[in-house]
Structures are given as structure tokens and as C-alpha cells.
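FAQ

Q: What does a record look like?
A: Structure on top, sequence underneath. For example:
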């Protein structure tokens, strides 16, 4: 177990709870709305299941989350933020804003992860400009190995959005061909769909209306509007 700072200062005491490895990133996922173990794993794909389970127990012991039985699916447990956990929203948002403003863009784009990128895009996708029928967008990352190359976003007219890494068998409305770095750059707000098309880093084929509105419906990082200062 990590030794404490043994200081009465509230900053030191909070750091003992929040500054263990992966804890702040896990809190980001909880604050973003993930409540089930498997969904949390998708948001922190490089965190081992054993460590995730340990951190959840620690957050529960600290009174930051509550472990409850799902109301919609018997036998499944969910993790919900307590009042103390909800009070951390502004803390996590401020850390994200600082990172967007001051961490060097090249360093940011050295840490690429297709699973996390697509999961965040699914979660933040703006369904308002999407057609009133099922829309399927296939992303093809030409620089990735075959197991990670293809991803499908499925948007239902109800507003539900699903993410598949295996072909769902639906007709595809829009094909997005690119590599991981420019797509991550767009999501981070460091570039745009149009600029990456101009630089021939991204091509769109299929439904013209979907292609034209991609910058609008694409799920960008909640910090994308923050201007870089680094």
C-alpha cells in the first residue's frame, strides 16, 4: 500500500485518495457517465481488470462511489458517484482544461489508442444532424493491424449510438478512411475534418450529407474548444 504524506494539509489528504495510478482517469470515466465494469474497462483499455477492481474498491471505501445493484438487469452491479464523487467534477474538468492548454500537442498525439478514441467518439457523438433512420459509419484505419483496423458507429433514429469492432452486417452509409493520428487530432480539436481532407490524411465516401456534416456530428473531446497555449 502506498505510504501516506502524513500532512494535515487538505491538498495532501486529497492527494492520498486521488493521486494513485489510474485513479484520476477512472474518475474521468465515472464522471462521463460510465457505471458498469465493462464500460469502465472500455474507457481505460490499458488498465488491467485486477487494478480496476482494486481502484473501485478504494474509491468506494473513500466514499466517492457507491456500488449498487442495477435496476434494469438483475445480478449486475453498477458504480455511481456519491455526493463527494460528484463534487470532483470541476476538479477533473480543470485538470483536462489544463492538459489541453499546456501539454504539448506532439506529446498528446504520441499516446494513440484506437479503442479509447472510438469509445469517446461514440459517447460524445451529436445525433441532432443525423438522418431519421439508422446510419452506419465505418472507420478504416490504414495504419493499424487487422484486428484494430475497422470500427463501425451505428446511430439509431432514437439517438442511441453503438460501437462495433466486428462487422455488424448493416449497409454502410459513410466510409471514413484515415490513420489514427489525424483522427485523434480532429477529436482533440487540434485540426478539422476539412483540413485533414485537404492534406489528404482523410477521405470520405458515401452519403454526401453525412460527409458534409461530419465535423458537426463527430463526437469531439469535451476539451476541444480550449485553445493550446503550450
Amino acid at each position: 500500500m502506498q505510504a501516506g504524506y502524513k500532512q494535515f494539509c487538505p491538498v495532501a489528504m486529497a492527494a492520498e485518495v486521488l493521486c494513485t495510478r489510474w485513479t484520476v482517469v477512472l474518475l474521468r470515466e465515472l464522471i462521463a457517465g460510465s457505471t458498469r465494469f465493462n464500460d469502465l474497462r472500455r474507457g481505460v483499455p490499458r488498465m488491467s481488470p485486477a487494478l480496476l477492481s482494486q481502484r473501485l474498491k478504494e474509491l468506494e471505501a473513500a466514499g466517492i462511489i457507491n456500488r449498487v445493484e442495477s435496476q434494469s438487469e438483475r445480478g449486475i452491479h453498477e458504480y455511481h458517484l456519491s455526493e463527494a464523487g460528484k463534487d470532483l467534477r470541476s476538479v477533473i474538468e480543470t485538470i483536462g482544461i489544463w492538459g489541453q492548454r499546456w501539454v504539448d500537442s506532439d506529446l498528446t498525439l504520441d499516446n494513440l489508442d484506437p479503442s479509447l478514441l472510438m469509445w469517446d467518439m461514440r459517447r460524445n457523438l451529436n445525433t441532432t444532424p443525423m438522418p431519421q433512420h439508422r446510419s452506419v459509419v465505418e472507420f478504416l484505419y490504414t495504419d493499424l493491424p487487422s484486428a484494430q483496423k475497422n470500427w463501425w458507429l451505428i446511430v439509431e433514429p432514437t439517438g442511441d449510438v453503438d460501437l462495433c469492432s466486428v462487422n455488424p452486417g448493416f449497409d454502410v452509409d459513410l466510409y471514413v478512411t484515415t490513420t489514427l493520428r489525424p483522427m485523434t487530432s480532429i477529436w482533440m480539436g487540434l485540426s478539422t475534418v476539412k483540413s485533414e481532407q485537404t492534406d489528404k490524411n482523410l477521405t470520405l465516401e458515401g452519403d454526401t450529407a453525412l460527409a458534409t456534416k461530419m465535423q458537426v456530428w463527430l463526437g469531439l473531446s469535451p476539451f476541444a474548444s480550449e485553445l493550446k497555449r503550450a
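Q: Is there anything notable about this one?
A: The beta strands are 65-69, 77-81, 135-141, 150-155, 161-164, 174-178, 202-206.
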